[in-house]
Amino acid sequence: MSYFLTEDQEAMRRVAQKFAREELMPIANQIDLDEHAPEWLTKRCGELGFLAIRIPEAYGGMGGDLTTACIILEELAKASPAFAGLLSVEMILCPGVVDILGTDAQKRRLLPDSATGHRVMAFSQTEPAGAGNTKFHQTRLTADGNAWRLNGHKLFCTQGAAKSYLVFCKTERDGQQGYGCVVVEREDEGFEVQKYEDKLGWRGTNTGPIAFNDVKVSADDVLGDLLTGNADIAPVNQASFMGHAATSLGCMEGLFDLTVAYVKDRSLYGQPMHRLSPVTDRLAQVYAKIEACRSLLYSSTRLLDEGRMTGPQGSICKAYICDTAFECTSQLLQMWGGSGMMNSTGVNRYMRDARAKMVAEGATEMHHAIIAATIGFPVSMVEG
Ligand SMILES: Cc1cc2nc3c(=O)[nH]c(=O)nc-3n(C[C@H](O)[C@H](O)[C@H](O)COP(=O)(O)OP(=O)(O)OC[C@H]3O[C@@H](n4cnc5c(N)ncnc54)[C@H](O)[C@@H]3O)c2cc1C
Predict the structure, then answer these.
(1) Is 112 in the same domain as 38?
(2) Sign of CA dihedral 82, 87, 92, 97
(3) CATH number at residue 92
(4) Would you give the DSSP letter of residue 219?
(5) Over the stretch 269-326, which tens digit does the pLDDT of each residue have?
(6) Residue 346, in any domain of the structure
(7) What is the whole-number distance in angstroms between the Cα of residue 125 and the centre of ligand 1?
(8) Smallest Cα–Cα separation from 28: which of 89, 88, 92, 76?
(9) How many CB atoms lie within 10 A of CB 271?
(10) How far, in Å, from the CA of 267 to the mean position of ligand 1?
(11) Which residues line ligand 1 at a C-beta cut-off of 6 Å?
(12) pTM for this one?
């Protein structure tokens, strides 16, 4: 189904499909088994133009729409939902934060290299008090002459081979307190990557805790308004939620395609497996859900691209599509019997990656709270 995509969008889909099939799929299971993705993968995505899509032309990008970015993520996720998740952070979230908060000089410094894959960036907000519970976050920027010092630590930072970290922190100016964003470079003195976690899903993305021990931050590294930086990124968050929904859509589709091929090939009780009516019934239900999710996603990205979005479409897509992806991948996995349980077959990673997406970038319940607020039931996200 075309979903009224343009020729340029379809052309980009073909480039992403080819890369996913020929370069990503052959190593996708190894990434999952090893908890390690090779660095060349991100650079290759830079060469293919994927990372430039959402970056304005003035800063070395293509100034493309969110729909195209989501098409790329959907195609890559069919092979490796985990790597597509990392790429979503690189394509949409991090450049979006720099673009919306940064000065012209900061954009010139950070975005052109990000567009080529030579400056991987990380988004760092979550703390032990809870990701959305920013009132209780401890990471703090304090004045030090003409510069600043950053102290604290963050959890679950998805980094790949990050060079620059966009760190959200408590700030203070002239007695006023706020929550802003600063740039920390990996080589900065006092910055520490503590470890990379061994995860259930979304493996190979170098997710883990990071710490700041008196890291010096110059005024050039403060993105946007010191006190209100975090408040301004809501439109980027909504776009990013759709990017993650696109990876969950691709995740469902990837396992669906593998499962269709499998049941066509497999013989069970002396007959082709697909002759068993529960099998085709289940496949039909999953297919319908994939189509419904695709319609929701691309009608939402279109609203955003055309500047007509009035509600929390990103949260709706993130909550609904990510939950559906877990439900569907779990149903599909069932059809593989014992071989689906074996990590070596590369099948169960789809379900594990789908499960991680129900938490990463906002647990489903947090998105439900955002949706509930827009229908008249506001819930405070910062209750202590
Ligand atoms: C694989 C992975 C990668 C990640 N990468 C990053 C990253 O790059 N940068 C980053 O900053 N963070 C990252 N995170 C953190 C992620 O954004 C948070 O885990 C997520 O937002 C949930 O926050 P929390 O873990 O603090 O859960 P908590 O806030 O402690 O919530 C625990 C549970 O409480 C429930 N809950 C939470 N809020 C509400 C609410 N408002 N209403 C009702 N119930 C609620 C949910 O069931 C939730 O799962 C990553 C997480 C994962 C799993």
Answers:
(1) yes
(2) positive
(3) 1.10.540.10
(4) G
(5) 899 998 888 899 999 999 999 999 999 999 999 999 999 999 999 999 999 999 999 9
(6) yes
(7) 10
(8) 76
(9) 9
(10) 43
(11) 123-126, 130-132, 156-158, 199, 202, 207, 356, 359-363, 365-366, 369, 379, 381
(12) 0.97
Q: Which mutation among 83, 154, 156, 364 tests ligand 1's pocket best, with the greatest number of atoms within 8 A of CB?
A: 156
What DSSP line would sit under 9-36, residue for residue? HHHHHHHHHHHIIIIIHHHHHHHHHHT-
382: in domain? no
Average pLDDT for 221-230: 92
pLDDT tens figures, 143-200:
988 899 999 999 999 999 999 999 999 998 888 999 999 999 999 999 999 999 999 9
- The amino acid present at 340, given as its one-letter code, is G
Segments forming the whole domain that contains residue 221: 123-229
Question: How many other C-beta atoms can be found within 10 angstroms of the C-beta atom of residue 177?
Answer: 10
As a whole number of Å, the end-to-end CA separation of the chain is: 47
Encode pLDDT of 231-266 as tens digits.
889 999 999 999 999 999 999 999 999 999 999 999
H or E stretch covering 109: helix 104-116
**Which of 120, 148, 177 corresponds to the end of one domain?**
120
Element (H, E) at 248: helix 234-265
8 A C-beta contact, residue 156 and residue 126: yes
Strands (E) across the chain are located at 121-124, 140-144, 147-158, 164-173, 176-185, 191-193, 207-217, 222-223, 267-268, 271-272
